[in-house]
Amino acid sequence: MTTEFPKNFLWGGATAANQIEGAWDVDGKGVSVQDLLTGGTVDKPRHFTAKVDPDAYYPSHTASDFYHHYKEDIKLLAEMGFKVYRLSINWTRIFPNGDDEKPNQAGIDFYHKVFQECHKYGIEPLVTISHYEVPYHLTAAYGGFSSRKVIDFFENYCRVLFESYKDEVHLWLTFNEINTALMFGGGYIQAGVPVKDGSSIFDRVTKEQRQNAFQAVHNQLVASAKAVKLAHEINPENKVGCMIAGSEVYPLTPDPKDVLLAQQQTEMNNFYCGDVHVRGAYPAFAKKYWRDNDIHLEIDPSDAKTLKDGTVDFYSFSYYSSGAVTIHPEKQEKVNGNMSSGTKNPYLKYSDWGWSMDPEGLRIYLNQVYQRYQIPLMIVENGLGAYDKVEADGSINDDYRIDYLRGHVEAMKEALDDGVDLIGYTPWGCIDLASASTGQMSKRYGFIYVNRHDDQTGDYSRTPKKSFYWYKKVIESNGKEVE
Fold first, then answer.
1. pLDDT at residue 2 in the model
2. Is the Cβ–Cβ distance between 383 and 329 less than 8 Å?
3. Residue 168 appears among annotated catalytic residues
4. Which residues is 75 bridged to in the sheet?
5. Is 177 a known active-site residue?
6. Domains of the chain, residue spans
7. Pairing between strand 356-357 and 349-350?
8. Nearest CA to 133 among 21, 47, 51?
9. Which of 21, 117, 133, 177 is catalytic?
10. Which residue is catalytic, options 381, 391, 476, 481?
11. For residue range 218-273, what is the model confidence (pLDDT) as tens digits?
12. Sign of CA dihedral 472, 477, 482, 483
């Protein structure tokens, strides 16, 4: 195969404010939905508390303390040769309550400093506007995005961002993994939909919560379209993408019923929101899904035009693992992978957290999505959460992470050869951070080790892992050197 990565390919890495920044109540920052989610494990899910419990651990409160280490961290990213750094803005740093009349200047100033530090090293910021960081006040006072009022608050927030960072940021994503509001947590984490105090993020979703989650996603799709149009008006150089939690679902057997089930799950996971973002309208299967599941959306007559006028410039997504489904219970071997639980695929290996490792699935997904949409694609999350051991000499030999990433880089090259227009790759958690699914620091993703642990000990010092130097060579060689 002679296909090479494009010369202007955007190599980099990704983080989220609530999982890396810490400093949760510093310099005027308000309380986000994440600030009320406790830590957990695979066996003990994270829980929502209506107010902070002084005896509980909240990962977002401290995280990796990027707030005070951003200069050191960005310098390390530059040492790897990053072309782009995907990060998110914490909404409550800009508008502490979400519906404030005026923004918090200290929050605006912080991100100015972060972006300026990126540009100092020639790193382009790719900024997610809402990455699981809805202001909790919007949840308590309005019901989160289940209320159309929050669309206006989001648009106001976007206007402040686009105007404040007009000369510093030209790549934007609206809502992180917008489709996850329909998958778990009743829409609380992704869209700020209210849930019962003490509930787990993996509790069974009630009919009312499911209805609210679908309404919230519709309102977010409208808000996203308004943001795209606004971004283009304020600066025509702005490029705005969607962000989908990508998943490849296989039929476990050749039974046509398994094939149909896999197809239906794939459509809902990948195209329900994707079609609205890219094509400006819901897919054909949406109305049947609403009818079959007793979903009743309040859709304003103006929404159709708003969605059509606010389509995205590129399609970005996360990809970690694939799933398998079957109607035959006797053939099932269950696997618990937090967000990717289901039927075990006998042809794949699994991580310590029960996530399948399937680079070939990434190639399949890339082809599937590109053939449907024919717009540039970007992989903005992909990585392996694993336990890392610090050796006596201080080194961290994470060959398992290198193996995982190597397979996916090779799959990307195959997809390019297939004709896919792939423009960038930002592996998840390029710096160790608190896991979204469990809140654990011990579930590490980064090229850079952060000395912070689940028992809240550690001095936050940073240490490059073996994968740091491997990825540096990958970037230097533009994907040619992956061994």
1. 62
2. no
3. no
4. none
5. yes
6. 10-476
7. antiparallel
8. 21
9. 177
10. 381
11. 999 999 999 999 999 999 999 999 999 998 999 999 999 999 999 999 999 999 99
12. negative
What would the pLDDT profile of 425-454 be if each residue is shown by its tens digit?
999 999 999 999 899 999 999 999 999 999
Spell out the alpha helix ranges (H) of 84-206. Answer: 91-94, 105-120, 136-142, 149-164, 188-191
CB distance 452 to 435 below 8 Å: no
| Closest by CA position to 110, among listed 176, 165, 155 | 165
Reference 438, options 260, 201, 142; nearest CA is 201
Q: What fold characterizes domain 10-476?
A: TIM Barrel (3.20.20)
94: which 2 tokens?
A: 């800009």
The one-letter amino acid code at 40 reads G
**66-80 and 105-120 helices, crossing angle to 10°:** 20
Q: 387: how many CB neighbours lie within 10 A of its CB? A: 13
How confident is the model at residue 330, as a pLDDT? 83
Q: What is the DSSP string of 254-305?
A: S-HHHHHHHHHHHIIIIIHHHHHHHHSS--THHHHHHHHTT------TTHHH
Please give the model's pTM, rounded to 2 decimal places: 0.97
Question: How sure is the predictor about 333, in pLDDT bands with cuts at 50, 70 and 90?
Answer: confident
Q: Are 344 and 334 in contact (CB under 8 A)?
A: yes
Please compute Rg for the chain using Cα positions: 21
